[in-house]
Each structure stands twice: as structure tokens, then as C-alpha cells.
Amino acid sequence: KRRPKLRHKWYSNLNRYYEEMPIFFPEKKPSVSVAFGTQGSIYTAPNTPIKFTYFDASLGYINGPISFGPNAVFKYGHQYLFLSNQTNVDVSLSFNPLTGIESDVWRVGLGSHQGYGYRSGSFSLTPYHGNALVWTNIAYTNFASLSESEQRLLSDFNNAVRFGTTTQAGVRLGFVEPIALDVSFQRTLVMRRFVFWQWIGSYGLEALSQALLDGFIREIYKSSPAFAPIMNFALKNGLAYGIYQLRREKMNTPFESEAPIHFDMFRIGFMFSF
Questions:
Q1: What would the mean pLDDT of 261-272 be, rounded to a whole number?
Q2: pLDDT band, residue 104 (cuts 50/70/90)
Q3: Is residue 12 part of a domain?
Q4: Mean per-residue pLDDT for 26-49?
Q5: CATH code, 203
Q6: Which domain of life, per UniProt (predicted)?
Q7: What pTM was estimated for this model as a whole?
């Protein structure tokens, strides 16, 4: 009789790790998303009207749901390529709101979402954290009324492609397959200049901090699965928000670097999975 093949514990753990990684997960679903947004700066007056100025479309893959325990709680991942446009918006430059500036902004980038969700029958609720690498082209007009220093700064961005990053906090609601409603807030930082070593150092510190949180949240999932979606949303987005607040002053914090231009956006959209 043939003896069963023995596998070491380390092999089993490594195999499970790759099964849980989104890129290796076998049940990928193609997805198409469209979203509309409102441009609003946290530095503008409270009574400033919110304008519908933003549109994006993305193609990607949904990974999961990857279930480790109770069927009601699952792990969720989404990787995508996107294109977006926004026009006639107010841009916040450091701490000074700039008004009366017309702009046409195009972005293309690669992004991912990660989270834990709840599921009951066909209904699902998935709070998530997201980030993206973004290339932005901004075309400004009507900024002659600004100070000379502000005009020089905007000239560095005008009609040029600049690299940046995005953080996103959102909730996805699934009612009927294959459609899901997505509501989120995102902040995009656009660099004046790209200094590779400063960026990789700043990004590496953020990635390490998020990875440590991932390990902590996994332990929460093992002991109290029902709290994992909430804690993942609060901790990972809280950390990202704090880092991005610091980056408003120094793009590659903690390293000495120039202030970026940033865009705050509230989005609502729909995802179709196949």
C-alpha cells in the first residue's frame, strides 16, 4: 500500500499564505466600475457649494470572498486600472484655498482595495481601505490673479504629467448580483517633483506600518471575526489619514520635501462583477 506523502508544517503555512494572497487566489472575477464625485476642499468655507465635477472608470479583478471561518464574514480584495477626469474645480494648494481657477485634470493609475466584509444571503457590506499609484495631467487657466509665488508653483504642474498617490476609505454594498454600490472618500497627492529615494523611503514606512496592522487585524479575526471588518476599516484608514495629513506639508514625510497639490473627493459609483 502506498504511504501518504508527508508535508512539513512550514509547507502548509506557506501554501496557505499564497492561497490568501489576492494575486494567487483562484476565484478572480473580472469587474467594471464607474463612479461620479464631488470636489470639495476641507479648507474652503462651509457654505461653498459642492460641485459634481468628477468621473472615473476602472477595469479590474475582485478576489474572493476569501472565507477563513464563519460564512458571514469574509476577506475581500480588488485590483484595478483606472482613468478619471475632473473639470472646473477648486484646488487646495497647501493651506491656501485657490478659487476662481479653471482646470482640466486627467488621471491614470493602478490601485487596490482590501477589507473584510459581512454577508447574509445575497446582501453584503464591505468596508475597505484602498491606495493607488497615480499619474496626473493638470491644465490650469485663469490664475493670473494669484500671487507671483503661487503662479510659479502652479506653472510647475501646468500641462505636465506628475506622479502621485491616493488613499481611499469606502464601503461597498451588494444587493443583487452582479451589481454593487460603492461610496468612498479619497485624497490624491500630486508631487511637484519625483525624488525616487525619498519616495521609496516614505512609501516603505507606510507599507511596513500597514503590514504590521494586517497581522494585528488577522489576530482579531481569529478571536472575534465579527469585529474584523470594523477594526480593519478604522485602523488602516486611520493610519493612512494621519500619514496623508503629514504629507500635505512634506510629500515624502518624514524626509525634507516640497508640499504637493492635493485633491479631496467624495465618490459614489457602481461595480459590475462577472
A1: 88
A2: confident
A3: no
A4: 64
A5: 2.40.160.20
A6: Bacteria
A7: 0.79
